[in-house]
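Appendix B, Record 12. Input sequence as logged:
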Amino acid sequence: MIKPIRHTTDSCTLSGGETISATTDETVEGKELDFVLCTWTAGSAPTTNENFVVTLDSSLGADYDVPLYTVDPAAASAADIFWRPDDGPIRLGKNDQIKVTYANSDDLAIVCAIGLAVQ
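Logged structural output:
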């Protein structure tokens, strides 16, 4: 079990019909970051089929980016998503980011949060 020194969340409120992204940009000098969870909350379940995607955006470039999780909230009739990596926290390399995208054609007010553990 990993015991975080500190747990932090990077969150944003998302609205409008444009593509949305939330990225972690926090750096903690001398500490490594683990990605531990992602949440997505909308006022209601979307009706348009679009994927909510969580991606490890590697500092090494696009060839090293890894899609971690994909779900269509409309297909699942989900207004809330809580996702943790199945195999436990994911250690982020220097300048790596967790990127969350969703097209939001239904123009819902969405709050998205990315949880990090500082080692």
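Strands lie at 6-14, 20-23, 33-42, 52-57, 66-71, 80-83, 90-91, 97-102, 110-118.
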